[in-house]
Amino acid sequence: IPKKLVTTVSGCADDALAGVVACNPGLRLLQGHRVVLRDDLQAIRGRVALLSGGGSGHEPAHAGYVGKGMLTGVVAGTMFASPSVGSILAAIRAVAQAGAAGILLIVKNYTGDRLNFGMALERARAEGTDVRMVVVGDDCAFTKPGKAGRRGICGTILIHKVAGALAEEGASLDEVEKKAMAAAKVMGTLGLSLSPCSIPGSKPSFQLAEDEMELGLGIHGEAGVRRMKMLPADKAVETMLKHMMDPSSASHLSVTPGSSVVLVVNNLGGLSCLELGIVAGAAVRCLENQGIRIARALVGSFMTAMEMAGVSLTLMLVDEELLRLIDAKTMAMAWPNILAGPATTRREEVPAPIEPPRKPEDETGTGLSMARVERVLQRVCSTLLDMKEKLNELDRGAGDGDCGHTHAQAAQAIQEWMRSRPPPAAPAQLLSSLADVVLAQMGGSSGVLYGLFLTAAGQSLRGRSDSAAWADAMDAGIEAMQRSVPGDVEPQCPLGIPVPPEFPCIPHRYGGAAPGDRTMLDSLFAAGQALHSLRSPGADPLQVLAAAVQSAEAAAEATRHMEAGAGRASYVHSSRLEQPDAGAVAVAAVLGAVLE
């Protein structure tokens, strides 16, 4: 049974609603019922009231859409279960007694919801209350929907918004009902999942293989129309939109070039925000390529299925009137309060800033052989590319597992740089140029640290070509990686509160590491100590370099037994760090490639 962070399984629906109400001063619970109402019920006197609801487990639906400009109230059931007739009737009575000029129930097309809301409607009418019901069925999954009809899924929130804006403007119940029904007929939704979902205390409702995804499933984990092999995001989006707009399907949405639509990219609960952004971009691009105008795009978690790793796409065909209602202001907390405007992947980019011209560097002394420089750099790059997976594996113990990726990124950037121009032969210019490349392209903390090292080492080499200069350059680079903030400025708190020097959240140093902290610095420092022999008269540079490589390799291996004192690994208990530090291993490999 999957883990869930709940207090009790039986009380999770009530606890979730209580938490939402506790944190939102515009909401109130209806005593004795799982019903959330607007705090300002007096404001609906003489206006149409809107009620919706359904099972819990779809948060932020449905309580997230209660507020001025959207719903007056919602009725929640237990997990994935329709609310009771008694609670629905209590909500209807509460808003009727507050003076509502008619009540519209907005219901998703599920048998339980239709039955319970329908029975409450009949009982309320028998009491003399003017109540209507709009049933939303926006699911485009089934080419031949059965007797139950199309399921109501994420598109329902757009009906909440359209009806809510009309009610806020003072429209009559007849008008709100008519326009809500019309809007429901010009939209469609389709879901795609990479994983199942589960309610607290229960096993997942279905299983998907590691290489499978399911098209067209419901928001309770009901079966979809097709299981297929995993696709890249852009191909998955193309498949979804093609299915939604397929004229041979009885549940398709007819969207033609020149149409204007509102697009909703909905996280079904467990998809990362990164993946959601990729899907959103792919959807906008795919629609644009078909000549469809995306008048508005809403991206986020709007109607979920617990922790399901999946996404649904909703399209609503809009004219100026519908778009005005979508744009109308609302206080509902789950509706995205963003600048209204069309979505496009063709938005003009801000021009890149112009780099100031570099001062020409005066280089004296003997330069390196260009052919030799290129050979060495190619060996270094090949070594790092070959080690990518090994470095990632070593780095996983520290949490993120990206060390190989960042070093491979640097290697590819250096290769591209060498293809675009010959590397400088002067050592100082060479290291300075390499610093620019890694700072621009490598990313991560490694990119900054290598950039600091190469910049300082390059500056130390200016005007020098003797062997001892390389020992000095190594020391300068290492010192730069540990250096205090420029001018040794004391850390400052943004609020002006004095910060003690030992305060851990305000670093005094760029890198902050020292030898023995289980970082790349351990290999560099060991190699630097060995290079000091270059200062001795008659020292053989190749022998000294070979000794430096051996020292770096030994230091990298020694990190296996060190307690991490800096970097991301310092947050991981030492007993879990069973491998040598990935950064230290990478440095030793780079030095070894230079020697070959």
UniProtKB/TrEMBL annotation:
Highest taxon above the source species: Eukaryota
A single GO molecular function term of this UniProt record: triokinase activity
Composition bias, Basic and acidic residues: 346-362
GO CC, one annotated term: cytosol
Keyword NAD (UniProt): no
Names of the cofactor(s): Co(2+)
InterPro entries: DhaK_dom, DhaL_dom, DhaL_dom_sf, Dihydroxyacetone_Kinase
Region (Disordered) residue spans: 346-368
Listed SUPFAM superfamilies: DAK1/DegV-like (SSF82549), DhaL-like (SSF101473)
Domain DhaK: 8-335
Catalyzed reactions: FAD = riboflavin cyclic-4',5'-phosphate + AMP + H(+); D-glyceraldehyde + ATP = D-glyceraldehyde 3-phosphate + ADP + H(+); dihydroxyacetone + ATP = dihydroxyacetone phosphate + ADP + H(+)
Keywords: ATP-binding, Cobalt, Kinase, Nucleotide-binding, Transferase
EC number: 2.7.1.28, 2.7.1.29, 4.6.1.15
Residue span, DhaL domain: 371-596
Gene Ontology process terms (BP): glycerol catabolic process
NCBIfam families, per database record: PRK14479.1
Role, per record: Catalyzes both the phosphorylation of dihydroxyacetone and of glyceraldehyde, and the splitting of ribonucleoside diphosphate-X compounds among which FAD is the best substrate. Represses IFIH1-mediated cellular antiviral response.
Subunit structure of this chain's protein: Homodimer. Interacts with IFIH1 (via the CARD domains), the interaction is inhibited by viral infection.
Protein name as it appears in the record: Triokinase/FMN cyclase
